[in-house]
Every structure is written in structure tokens, then in C-alpha cells.
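Long-time lurker, first post. I've been practising inverse folding by hand and with some scripts of my own, and I keep getting stuck on stretches where the C-alpha cells seem ambiguous. Below is the full C-alpha cell string for one chain I'm working on. Before anyone asks, I'm not after the true native sequence, just a reasonable design that respects the backbone. If someone could post their per-position residues I'd love to compare against what I wrote down in my notebook.
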């Protein structure tokens, strides 16, 4: 029992490290080559997990080969537009000025139901509101709305709102994150004063605390 456990644990750690090398894309954001590599890695890794008679190296070497191939392909794609187009294709416009481009939809084998569903998921229920929509190389649908249908922005109202700095998490479930405190340019003394004002004597009493460079904070006490 110990041998299968250790082999599975080694492969698990190895695959996590391998996937980290491929970046942090979500499955829905992967290019075709990245998705294929991910599927192949999972298939290759399952074989030595199930059969302990197969040497562990017979699972690790193919995974290394696949990840190495993906790194090389990604590097070539980064520097060669022609290779990137060959491997991933290019975006295809499916709606232009509120009109469906049927030929483009047929080439993508994209049904009208699927397209309308994607539009509804982006809160678009009227085709006439769409100035341009295109299917990206990762399969996602990008939409540009007509000016009259776009959400109102500060620039459209000729306003000049004050720039908002991002909030950084300082304490997460009782754990202090000093690197984030440095990002907002605050001292440990400042943090202690904020905690005291919130009635917390130690990090263990804080469930959530974040702040920005202006000193604005969001706090939640840990429930007992």
C-alpha cells in the first residue's frame, strides 16, 4: 500500500510543478495546444499511478517531454506571428453592426443557439446593440457594444473621479502578510493601531483585513 501512495504523491507534486511552468491560464482560456498538453499529461500520469509494475520514470519522462515541448512551442509562438496563427488560428468576427455573419459561423461550426447563449451570458439580449463580436482563438466571445448601449462611464459624463488605489490583503484568517503591508507603504505600528481600533489584540482574532495606500480599511473579526 505504501508504494502506490508514494508514487501517486510524487506524480501529484510533479504534475503541479509542470503545470506551473505552463502559466496560470484557466481551462476556458487555454489555446488548443495548451489544452492538448494538459489532457495528455493527465492521461500519461494515470498509467504509473494504476500499475505499480511500470517504472515511475516511464511516467515522469513523458510528462517532462510534453511540458518541454509546450515551453518550446510557446517560445516560438511568442516570437513568430505566422507560427502563432498556424497553431492557434486568428479571431473571427461573427457579428458586425448588429448583423450575423453566417459564413463565419458556418466555418466555426457555431450554432445560432450557442452564439445567442454566449451573448446572454454577457448580458446582451438584443443583436442590434452589438457593434462587433468576435470569437477569440481560445473560444471566448468578445463584444463591442454600440455607443448607446454601453454602460455609462465617468468620461462619458465628463467627470474626473479620484484615482482609487487597489486594496491589499494584510491579514487572512489570522495570518499576517507582511509583503502586502509593504506594498501600501504602511508600518507595523499603523497596522497595530488599526487592529486596536477594531478591538483585535492579535492576528488570530482577525479573519479578514485589507487596506489601500490611503489608509482605507475593510475588516472582519473572526467568529468564535
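-- Answer (accepted) --
I ran through it position by position. Result:
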Amino acid at each position: 500500500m505504501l508504494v502506490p501512495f508514494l508514487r501517486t504523491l510524487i506524480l501529484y507534486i510533479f504534475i503541479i510543478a509542470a503545470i506551473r511552468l505552463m502559466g496560470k491560464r484557466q481551462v476556458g482560456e487555454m489555446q488548443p495546444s495548451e489544452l492538448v498538453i494538459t489532457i495528455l499529461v493527465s492521461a500519461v500520469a494515470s498509467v504509473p499511478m494504476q500499475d505499480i509494475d511500470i517504472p515511475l520514470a516511464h511516467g515522469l519522462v513523458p510528462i517532462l517531454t510534453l511540458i518541454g515541448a509546450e515551453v518550446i512551442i510557446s517560445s516560438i509562438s511568442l516570437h513568430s506571428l505566422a507560427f502563432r496563427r498556424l497553431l492557434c488560428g486568428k479571431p473571427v468576427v461573427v457579428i458586425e453592426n448588429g448583423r450575423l455573419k453566417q459564413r463565419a459561423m458556418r466555418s466555426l461550426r457555431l450554432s445560432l443557439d450557442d452564439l445567442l447563449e454566449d451573448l446572454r451570458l454577457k448580458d446582451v439580449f438584443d443583436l442590434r446593440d452589438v457593434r462587433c463580436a468576435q470569437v477569440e482563438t481560445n473560444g471566448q466571445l468578445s463584444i463591442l457594444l454600440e455607443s448607446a448601449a454601453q454602460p455609462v462611464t465617468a468620461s462619458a459624463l465628463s467627470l474626473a473621479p479620484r484615482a482609487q488605489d487597489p486594496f491589499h490583503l494584510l491579514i487572512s484568517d489570522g495570518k499576517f502578510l507582511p509583503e502586502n503591508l509593504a506594498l501600501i507603504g504602511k508600518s507595523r505600528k499603523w497596522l497595530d493601531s488599526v487592529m486596536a481600533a477594531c478591538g483585535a489584540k492579535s492576528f488570530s482574532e482577525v479573519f479578514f483585513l485589507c487596506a489601500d495606500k490611503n489608509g482605507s480599511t475593510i475588516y472582519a473579526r473572526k467568529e468564535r
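A couple of notes from the structure itself: The domain at 168-221 is CATH 3.30.240.20 (CRO Repressor). The chain has a mean pLDDT of 85. Happy to go over any region you disagree with.
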